[in-house]
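Subject: Sanity check before I submit

Could someone independently write out the structure tokens for this chain? I want to compare against mine line by line before I put it in a report. The sequence has 402 residues.
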Amino acid sequence: MEMNEYYKMLDLSRRRVRSVSLELKRFLYKKIDWNDRLIAVTGARGTGKTTLILQHIKDAFAERPDDALYVSLDHLWFETHSLDELVDMHLKNGGSHVFIDEIHYMKKWQLVIKNLYDDYPDLNIVYTGSSLLQIDYNSGDLSRRQIVYHLPGLSLREYLMFEGVYKTHSVSLDELLHNHMQIAEEITGKIRILKFFSSYLSGGYYPFYKEVHSGYDIRLLQIVNQILESDYPAIESINYTTVQKIKKMLYILAQTCPQTPNMVELYRQLDTDRNQGLKMLYTLQRANLLNLLSAEKATLKNMSRPDKIYCDNTNLMYALTENPDTGTKRETFFLNQLRSAEYQVMYPKQGDFIINEKWLFEVGGKKKSFEHKDLPYSYLATDDVETGRNNRIPLWMFGFLY
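---
Independent answer below. Compare away.
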């Protein structure tokens, strides 16, 4: 590689870093130990992975900017150039860190990352990729070398911070269950939380909402198409027909959430069999477009029909359906926020959700009866109320878990 090509990419990296703002940072920013030699950040398109790493570069390399090189593998430059050669040139010119965006656009990416890690012991690597990436956590190739982080969309807590109306730390579920009245009084004494909660449900989950305003739903649909038409084929060898089938599946299921449709009829409409249908279903969950709820934990080797199917988040509901059902929005929000905060959520024999095989929840409006109030560790997440009492907890408060 000639030096002018290296300087071209270094200059592009500098421009990207200069353009990013340090004003608002996601919760994951402080959780990442940036000293680790190999870091992976996965997440759905639009959640802010690129901004996250650019902010770190701007923060950490302000006095030595040329030590860090940022590249995005969806850039046309890589059609005729090699990442290996670029990294080698970067190290020979005094560089020490490389930040690789959109890793899923590289064939055999896991082997490439492993070789870079092993061949350059003085190199620190951070890479981002689609949530569709099949990272084998049981494999010795990368699992013992890298730390993997996942970036979901904004929590309600982060949305309030992005709006500049309220800033506070996250709380654990245990802390919320025991101190929700005190926490709610502190928050509702300063802002009209239900107003902001409503805005968040319709258009506040993806950080880019601040950039597009009235075109938010259109942008979100474009991202859905890009995930299925571009990211998915880049990761798995699939044809155009399969892409069209999985898009059709998403739109059909979005209209029926959270009830599980007649799967046999669904497979018939898609002209596919059960095995292929289940694979597409779980692919949509990996893409953070659907959220599947089951009584038993599903694995790649044991995929079964879920008990309920939801859109991943309420913003997707608004983008994919004309009139989102209120009850479904409530359950979708609850499920999304708990799983994004890395709690295990399963479908119980009684109630709506069971968390970490311990806490039982029902979700509903402020007039909903508490059918399982006598069961231990049983709670009601109630919409349209600012404060709760005893085991009745305002639904919006579950947006403060991360």
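---
OP: Matches mine. For the report I'm noting this point. Residues 353 and 361 are 5 Å apart (CA to CA).
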